[in-house]
Amino acid sequence: MIACYWFLVLYTKESSEFNLDGDFLLGGLFNIHLANGTILDRPEAIDCSRFQVMRFTIEEINNSTVLLPNVKLGYEILDHCSPIYNFPGVLDLISFNGSIRFSWEASDYRPLGKVMGVIGASSSADSLAIAPLFTLKLIPLISYAASSSALSLRAKYPAFLRTIGSNKDLVDVIIRVLQHFKWTWVALLYSDEAFGKDGLEVCIHEVVPTEICLAYIAAIDDNTNFLNVFQQIDLQNISVIVVYSVQPKALALIEAAVVHNVTNKVWIATDTWFFSKSLTNRSEIERIGTIVGVSEKTANLSGFEDFINSKNHSKPHNVTGDFVCEQDCNCDDITGKDILAEEASYNFQVYTATYAIAQALHNVLECDRGKCKVNGTVYPYMVLNEVKKTNLTLLNMTIQFNEFGGLKFPSVNIFVLAKGVITQVGSYETNPSVVLSINSSLIQWHANGTVPESVCSPECDVGYAKTPEGIHRCCFTCEKCKNGTYLNITADAYRCQECSISEWSLAGSTSCQLRSVEYIPYSDPMAILIIVGAMILAALSLAIAVLFLVHHNTPVVKSAGGLMCFIILVSLALCTISIFFYFEKPSTASCILRYLPFILFYTACLACFWVHAFQIVCAFKMAAKFPKFYSLYMKHHGQWWLIALPVLLQAVLLTTGYASSPPHPVNQTDLYPDKILLACGIGHSILFSMSAILLAFLVVLCFALSYMGKDLPKNYNEAKAITFCLLLLILTWVFFLTEYTIYHGEYIQTLNALAVLFSLYAILVCYFLPKCYIILFQPQNNTPHYFQELIQDYTKQISSQ
Fold first, then answer.
1. Using alpha carbons only, what angle is made at residue 416 by residues 413 and 419, rounded to the nearest 5 degrees?
2. Where is the chain membrane-spanning (predicted)?
3. Which residues lie below 8 Å from residue 722, measured CB to CB, with a gap of 6+?
4. Which of 16 and 292 is assigned the larger pLDDT?
């Protein structure tokens, strides 16, 4: 066991308001007055109100038949005006029989002193100084006024709790007030000590995710040149000043502002100095502007006034010797009226702290049915464990502690000082939800009754993004969001975000709208006409094939190509399959069927035409000059090889391309900002291009060969018919490609289907219908004798040349 002993020079205390015997004692640390050179977070001496609240609360508990029914609480209260002078008193609180025994072994845990818990201290600095002493044996120390965030470190201060919000809670309220009034360009002045420095760190951290900029930061102490501070604030055009300071430094700042004629400012005050009588009693204070204060919520303690008026308030007494804080506190002249007139902030916090320890002790003693088990041994750590579980409702307020020892549901009031009168204008609640409410109509602003402005740059118009200028993001220029972008000011006011691929927006938008999806349904009038036209073409092709089959031995059918005519007519009918898939929403299957039938079977048509054109030229020109070549060609069925070759090549190209990258639905979003055009991609671009080149080559080859036969016999001129068909085909696709480069609307698919249909009708109408006319209406011209005469006349004409 490791132990050390501290021996104290004890001083006796007469019976007074500062001590009361009881079964269990509570300690109290209150800054009843201010020793020379001591800096406190909270209001100035002499303050006898708060320790009277502790006395009142303990008396109320002792009179209760519900809370600690057969237990009497006592107290020992110290005037904790200085850590230096008060350490003997603090050590006396945790001593036992004049000594303090420190042990770190659980098996050797012994009571350390008379108290089960301590209420105090009244400042962050004092609490940081004494909290380690109470941590040694886990004696609960509940402060009613220490707000330093450093005290939230559970590993370092496990026995410390508080009934006041931490600096983080207070800064959060200040930030919400700034945001409520849209003040983004502020100065922060802090006292150069523990409370102010902690507030500075918290402020800098908490403003990061907000739009608030700390344009100017300065520490204030006894040597501060306030005139220079005010000049810097005016130079940067700052209208709102947050003063996070202990009372003496804050009051010195305000006094300097009055002396230097600082005007038209908004001063954000913490509760450390806002309620000082030096402010309310100073008539010139209105000249500096409007003072807005934030303070922990207070409540009227029923029965407290009667308690004060019923007591004789005696002077605390100490034996003579070294200076102790109480010796200068002459309370003999303080009346109950004086105590009740004192500023009442933190009275409720003292009240709740006392009740929290009493309720914890009640639970440790297992009080039930008007009795408590007082025979067992009670250790302070037991009380501490129960204090952490506190769940009280006092004066309609829920009191619970969070995992950091602070209030789970802090509550803050917002005040304004005007004409020497403090008026509550709002509140900040966290239970059941976080709500800031401010009644602006109660605020008398210095700026002609209107809310003052404090910004570096005026807010941008709707749909304009902020472009930062300089180191502060509150200083910016405004840039209008372009088409296809929008500004989500809640997510990022500094960047225009792009709309998704399915959305669009105009310039300066704050949101995107869904694009309209455009495609041609089957119910469209043009679609109906084209589909009907395709069906008629297919029917005509099959009808002509039947007609040619019936008259397959006639000269007209033979001169038109014979068996090749049937290949062409069937291919034309199969080509119409593609036309049906240019409408409705595309799918992968419909995209394939949109291209494959037309490309493949139209290749077959053109292959037959170029072979037929070649045969015509050979029959009438080359047969006469090169009879052996022509005979060899016909003997080995050369025409079928010449047809099969391009068809097979096209089939290979299509199969390879569709296997690697088939045509697929695409959303064309780059043509119109507010529309999505549903179309089909071509798939493998290289192979698709090769297929198109093959078609174009066949067209050119057919056109060249047919043009060579333009001077054939008038009544047997198949080459002229093929030339005219191909000319119409070329003109059709030239028109379509020209339109495609100009127009990009949803009807481009309709035009594509129309071009395909015209390509098919060009062959059917210009090549086959004239032959059908001869078969049906001029049978005399469809005889072998008639055709033989035409051939003999043409042969004689060629021979004579």
1. 145
2. 526-550, 562-583, 595-620, 640-661, 676-709, 721-743, 749-769
3. 609, 612, 613, 702, 706, 767
4. 292
